[in-house]
Amino acid sequence: MKALVTGGAGFIGSHLVDRLLQEGYEVVAVDNLSEGTLDNLKHLEGDHRLRFIRADIRDKRAVDEFMAGDVDVVFHLAAHANIRTSQVDHYVDLEQNVIPTIHILEAMLKHRVPHFVFASTSAVYGEAKLKPTPEEYSPIQTSLYGASKFSCEAFAQAFTQLGDISVWSFRFSNVVGERARHGVIWDFVHKLKANPNTLEVLGDGKQTKEYIYVSDCVEGIITGYLKSKARVNTFNIAVDETRSVDQVADIVISELGLKNQEVRRIYTGGSRGWVGDNPVVILDTSKLKSLGWRPKIGADEAIRRTARWTMRNL
After folding, report:
1. Closest listed residue to residue 158, CA positions, set 78, 79, 98, 111
2. Residue 311 CB neighbour total at 10 angstroms
3. Half-sphere exposure (CA, 13 Å, Cβ side) for 54?
C-alpha cells in the first residue's frame, strides 16, 4: 500500500509519516518546505520506503505528476494555517487551501486514487453554542481559515459523487508536541527566553482550548481511517480536558524554572487573542471513541512535553 502525505515535512505530517511507516505503508512525503523542514524527517534517512518530493500543491501540473504512481490514499495536511494573516490577505486561504485541495481531488480522479484523508480543524465550528460540539453541529464561520477548511471538506464530499473516492475529514483541536514550531507554547517559550520578567498574553488569558499531543492526534487519524468505511467520514479529535491560556502560561513558566509570581503578565485585552480566534473550544469525541480510540496523554503532560522540546530546540 502506498500513502501520499502532503505537508509531510511539517509538524503533524512528519509524525503521520512515522506512523504510516510503522503501519507498513510505502510513503511519499510532499512538502514545499515553506513551513516544514527536512529536519523533521532526518531520522528516516536511508529508509527506502520513504520518498520525499519538494513540490508546491498550488502547482496543478506538479500535483498531477506526483499523484501518478499507484497511490492508494492521500493524507492532505499541507495548508496555510495562520488565522491572523488571512484577516489581512483575504485570498490567501482560497489560494493555498481551497484551490490546491481541488487540484489534489482532480488528480485523484484522473489517477484513480480511492481514499482522501483531510486534516481539518475545530475552527470550522466558529463560536459554537453547543459544547461539547459534535460533528453534526451546523456552524457559522468566524474566520477565513475556518471557512476555507469547511469549504475543502465540502468539495471533497462533492467529489465522491464524481468518481470512486471516499473521504475522511478530521477536525483537530489544538495539537501540540515535538516538532511544533508555532502556537501558544512556542510563543511563550520564546518570549520568556527573551525576557523572563514579562510575558505578553494575547487576549485576557481566559481563552480555553483542548491541547492534544501529536501522537494521540495521529493515532486518531489512523483509527478513523482504518475502521470507518462510509463514503464520507467526519471526526473530531481532542482530549477530554481544557486548559486556559493562563494555565498554559503557568506550566511553561514552571518548565523554564521561573517563579510564577515573578513574571508580570501583560494582557492585550478582549476575550480573544485576535479576530477570528474562538475563545472556548470543546469538542465531542464520542464518535471516534466508538471505534476504540482514546488519547493517552493528558493536556498538562502534553503542554509540559512541548515546552521541554521547544526549549531544547530554540
Report:
1. 98
2. 16
3. 8
> Which of 22, 208, 55 lies closest to 122 in space, CA to CA?
208
Residue type present at position 125: Y
pLDDT score recorded for residue 63: 98
Residues with Cβ within 8 Å of 122's Cβ and at least 6 positions away in sequence, in order, are: 133, 171, 172, 173, 174, 236, 238, 278, 281, 283
CA atoms within 13 A on the CB side of 81: 21
Give helix 184-194 / helix 299-312 axis angle, nearest 10°.
Answer: 50
Rounded mean pLDDT, 11-38: 98
Q: 2-175+213-237 architecture in CATH?
A: 3-Layer(aba) Sandwich (3.40)
Which amino acid makes up residue 254? Answer: S
CATH number of 176-210+241-281+296-312: 3.90.25.10
| C-alpha cell at position 80 | 496555510
pLDDT in tens, 225-283: 999 999 999 999 999 999 999 999 999 999 999 998 899 999 998 887 777 789 999 99
**If you average pLDDT over every residue of the chain, what do you get?**
97
Catalytic residue of the set 25, 125, 145, 211: 145
In terms of DSSP bridges, do strands 264-267 and 198-201 run parallel, antiparallel, or are they unpaired?
Answer: parallel
Query: Per-domain residue ranges for the chain?
Result: 2-175+213-237, 176-210+241-281+296-312
Active site residue 211: no
Dist. CA 51–CA 3, nearest whole Å? 11
Q: 69 with 28: CB under 8 angstroms?
A: yes
What is the C-alpha separation between 42 and 175, in angstroms, rounded?
22
Nearest to 294 by CA among 242, 237, 243: 237
For the segment 105-118, what is each residue's pLDDT rounded down to a tens digit?
999 999 999 999 99
